[in-house]
Amino acid sequence: MSSCVFCRIIAQEIPANVVHETDDIIVIKDIAPKAPLHYLVIPKAHTTSILDLADHEAALAGKMFLAARDVAKKKNIQSFRLVVNTGTESGQSVFHTHLHFLAGKLTQDF
Ligand code: AMP
Ligand code: ZN
Q1: What whole-number distance in Å separates Cα of residue 93 and Cα of residue 59?
Q2: Helical (H) or strand (E) element with 19
């Protein structure tokens, strides 16, 4: 989707700080971090939110968690929080499914 910022990052049309990549997933640093370590785990295939995930994408949904695991292991992070905003009222602002990976000193309000 040419209008989607994450699709444009995946297509390398705009730059991002990539910390991990597989065939299906890219993990980048969040441009406006809400924690000392704030990454975004992004499937390369465009869906707007988890509400848009199809049953046949169950493996992809699982791969998002495995990518979070691999980033944690790679960076030796023992404690982290995964957040998935879904819909405008939850705070979702980029309508391409993603996990927030937050670590470091965390507050309870994200
Ligand atoms: P959400 O509000 O849950 O949809 O999360 C979207 C996240 O994407 C926010 O935390 C933004 O700071 C982040 N973001 C938006 N544009 C970029 C970008 N170009 N590079 C990295 N992160 C971005
Ligand atoms: Zn997209």
Answers
A1: 25
A2: strand 18-21
Taking the CA of residue 45 as centre, how many other CA atoms within 13 Å lie in the half-sphere pointing to its CB?
Answer: 14
The answer to pTM > 0.70 is yes
Q: How many residues does the chain have?
A: 110
The string of pLDDT tens digits covering residues 30-84 is 999 999 999 999 999 999 999 999 999 999 999 999 999 999 999 999 999 999 9
Pocket test for ligand 1, best of 30, 86, 96, 110 (most atoms within 8 A of CB): 30
Question: Measured from the CB, is residue 32 less than 6 Å from ligand 1?
Answer: yes
- Tell me how far apart the alpha carbons of residues 87 and 65 are, in angstroms, rounded to a whole number: 20
* Among 92, 14, 2, 103, residue whose Cα is nearest residue 26: 14
Residue with tokens 């707007």: 48
Q: Give me the amino acid identity at 101.
A: F
Q: For residue 83, which phi and psi values (nearest 5 degrees)?
A: -130, 135
